[in-house]
Amino acid sequence: MPADHCQSVLRIDVLSQWRDNIIGDISIVKRALACVVPPLKLCGSQGICTTLSSANIATLDTYRTLGFTELSLDSPSLSNGLVTLGRPI
Fold first, then answer.
1. Distances in Å between the alpha carbon of 50 and those of 14, 15, 47, 83?
2. Is 85 left (phi over 0), alpha (psi -120 to 50) or beta?
3. What does the pLDDT read at residue 34?
4. How far apart are CA 11 and CA 52, in angstroms?
5. pLDDT, average across residues 19-32
C-alpha cells in the first residue's frame, strides 16, 4: 500500500499485562479497530497508519496481526529506529 493512501493516523496502546492475561488473542483490540474503521472510511479515508519504534517487537507484532504492513516512505525514518505501518480500509 502506498504511503499517500494513509490519510488517518491511529495509535493503539495495550498494556502488556492486559495483552498477556486478558486479551491474549487480541480480540478486544480487533473489535476496537472494527469500531474505528467505518467512520474513517465514511469520511473518505483510504488507509490508516502509525509510526512505532522498531525495537518494540510486541507492539509491531500486534499491529501486523491487525493487518498492518510496513510502508516505504521517502524519509529518514529507518535511520532513526522508527517503522511506519499502514493498512488500507
1. 15, 17, 11, 8
2. beta
3. 92
4. 9
5. 70
The DSSP 8-state label assigned to residue 83 in this structure reads E
Q: Are 81 and 43 in contact (CB under 8 A)?
A: no
pTM of the model: 0.76
Compute the distance between CA of residue 60 and CA of residue 68 in angstroms, rounded to an integer.
Answer: 9
Domain ranges for the chain: 3-88
Give the span between the Cα atoms of 39 and 10, in whole angstroms. Answer: 13
**CATH topology classification for 3-88:** Aminopeptidase (3.40.630)
Q: Which residues pair with 69 in a beta bridge?
A: 86
